[in-house]
Every structure is written in structure tokens, then in C-alpha cells.
Amino acid sequence: MTSFVNLVLVLCFSSIGVSAEKKSVFFIFGDSTVDPGNNNYIETIPENQANHKPYGQNGFFKDPTGRFSDGRIIVDFLAEYGKLPIIPPYLDPSADYSYGVNFASAGAGILSTTNEGQAIDLKTQLKYFEEVEKWLREKLGSSEAEEVISNAVYFISMGSNDYLGGYLGNPKMQELHLPEEYVGMVIGNLTSALQELYGKGARKFGFLSLSPLGCLPILRAMSPKGCFEEANSLALAHNNALKNVLTNLGYLFKDFKYCYSNFYNWLQQRIIYPSNYGFKEGVNACCGSGPYGGVYTCGGTKKVTTYELCDNANEHVWWDSFHPTERIHEQFAKALRMGPRTLRERILFEISSSTRRR
Ligand SMILES: *[C@@H]1O[C@H](CO)[C@@H](O)[C@H](O)[C@H]1NC(C)=O
């Protein structure tokens, strides 16, 4: 069992980077969990931009970058562990795509109807990937470009906005679709995206599962008691459906390799027992206002300009009302790199992979 799990991790995350036999580049799709600043270049609402203080206050990057964190985010650590440079935002005009590129956009959904017009949805992120594909072909020639594409790691962290703004915050959508139907639509569209990428030659995928959405400070603030259960149920249903889809794609598609990480349980442990993991505060956001710091402002809306800021973000699980601190990003990236070392961790991770046997 141990060797299987380690093999999978080597496959999924250690294969990013120059240390691997062949160079793997890193392509990232997603929402604010992994947006490195694409939204700095689009027209959107202030809530979807983090290119201002106190974001980035720990100074790893000299100025705020657009990351929804006090510093780095998980993909920065994964790139570092893979001996790659920081992977740039696609929309940055000075971006060099040689080691990969990041298409993620805060507020974005898998469904195009989610926060429509305020973020770069998954379909558009795939269109942008086609541009990078063209660029690779022109630069390297077709056969070398194909090799880069099939050796690359495709990391996807998306879906939270489909369930929060797209469903729970959208009465009309709730009238139209039962929760299970809606999960089916989200997963259906994600599956189409995976098939499209596979069709283009992508073979190695990494997934960050949804977190316990109902325990985000913003939703805790809306719930009379504890976490907002409907949001947690949707996240769990999505994660289960995603795992099933991945198992099936593993059977159906030759050489489809993936690693699915259970961020839900991992984060839940830190929310409930922060001190077991070196944190002091698992519930209240470092930056925000109102109950739990859950009112969505950390200097990000024009309506509310005041907010409170904690003394030490490293003691907090949550940075703002939606997003975890750099320390959480780093701990999870490390966990992915090291792999689950104990049986308990192994159960929490549920990392799995499948390659069609021939
Ligand atoms: C994708 O989402 C749309 C709604 O945005 C839905 O009508 C469609 O059926 C979904 N596609 C799949 C394959 O589930």
C-alpha cells in the first residue's frame, strides 16, 4: 500500500519540474484558491480582486499580486518543490510560458453561468490554453510541443463558486435545479473539460477537492449554529462525484493519470483542532469584519472600507472570509509532496490513481 501511494505522488506532484526524467511544465486552472493575479487584468467587482493591501502583507512578493492570501498559494509551493519558477498568470503581458502558465481566476466557476461576466470561467480558461498550445507549436514544432503537453501536470482547483454564488446565493438556480441535479451539471461540465484536455494530449492531472465550504467564515457568519450544513453537503456531494468520475476516466482512457487530494477532511481537522497543527485560531478570519471576520471585506469592497487585521496570520487557518492563510497553503502542499505517512493520514488523503492496464 505504501509503495502504491508513494508511486502515485511521484506520478502526480514530484513529476512537476526539471528534477524529473523529462521536464514537466505546470498548467493551472481554477478560481481564487489558485489565482496568481489574472483578475488584475479583467473588469470585475472589487471582491474578485486582491491586488491591494493587506493581501500579500507577509512580503514574500514585494507588492500585492492578486493572490487571495497573506503571501503564497499552494501552486507556488508545488512549483518550488518541482524546481520550477513561480508560474505566471496567463493575462500578465510579461508572462513567460516556458515552465507553464496559470489560467485561474477568482470568482470563476466550472459553469459559465457562475458569476457570469465577473471572472474567467473554465470554458474560457480552456480557450486560453489553446492559445498556449499554439504558442508551444510555433516555438518548439509539433512533435516536441506534443511531448511537453503530454508530460505536463494539469492542476485543477475549482467548483466552490458554482455552489456558493452560483447556487446557494442564486434563488433562481435553486428553483430550476435540485441540489443533486446541479451537482450533476457541475460535474458533467468538469468531465467535458477533462475529456477536452485529454483529447489535446494531457495525461497527468492533479485535483484539489472542495473544502468544507460551510465552515468558511463568510458562511459560518450566515449560519445560526456552527457551519452552514447545506454548503458542506454540496461540497461533499461534489467531491464524491468527482472521485467517481476520475475512477471511470482511469478505466476508459489509456494513460489517464491523476491524483485526487481530500482537502475537505484535511482542512476540517485544522478548523476543529487548530492547536494540533500549530495554529491558534481555526474559526475566525485574520482579516475581515463582523462575526468570524466573515463579512466579505478585507479592504476589498468600496461599501465597507474598515476591517480588522490580526497580529499574526501564521496563527490563523483563515486569512479572509473565504480563503486560508499562506501557512495552510504551504502545509497542504508539503503534505502532497511528502505523501500520507500514517494510516490515518492515508485515510484523510484518499489519494488514488489509475492507469489502464494493458
Ligand atoms: C453544463 O452546464 C450547463 C449549464 O450551464 C448544462 O445545461 C449542461 O447540461 C452541462 N453539461 C453537462 C455535460 O453536464
Cα separation of the termini: 21 Å
CATH topology: Rossmann fold
Largest sheet: 5 strands, parallel
Bound molecules: 2-acetamido-2-deoxy-beta-D-glucopyranose
Strand order of the largest sheet: 2-1-3-4-5
Which spans of ≥5 residues are poorly predicted at pLDDT below 50?
1-11, 341-358
Secondary structure tally, helices: 12
Residues in β-strands, percent: 5-15%
Query: Outline, from the CA principal axes?
Result: globular
What sequence of helices (H) and strands (E) makes up the elements? HEHEHHEHHHEHHEHEEHH
Helix content: 40-55%
Please, what is the CATH homologous superfamily?
SGNH hydrolase
Number of strands: 7
Average predicted confidence as pLDDT: 88
The CATH class label is: Alpha Beta
Radius of gyration based on Cα positions: 19 Å
| Tally of domains | 1
CATH architecture: 3-Layer(aba) Sandwich
Name the structural class. alpha/beta
Pfam families: Lipase_GDSL
Family: Belongs to the 'GDSL' lipolytic enzyme family.
Keywords: Signal
Signal peptide: 1-20
Pick out its properties.
about 350 residues; about 40% helix; single chain; about 10% strand; Rossmann fold; alpha/beta; 7 strands; disordered C terminus; globular; GLIP1-5/GLL25
Write the layout of secondary structure elements.
Layout: H1 2-14, E1 26-30, H2 74-81, E2 100-102, H3 122-140, H4 142-151, E3 153-157, H5 160-168, H6 171-176, H7 179-199, E4 204-208, H8 217-220, H9 229-252, E5 257-261, H10 263-272, E6 287-288, E7 308-309, H11 326-338, H12 343-349
Parallel strand pairs: 1-2, 1-3, 3-4, 4-5
Antiparallel strand pairs: 6-7
Helix pairs in contact: 2-11, 3-4, 5-9, 7-9
2-acetamido-2-deoxy-beta-D-glucopyranose binds at residues 111-113, 185, 188-189, 192.
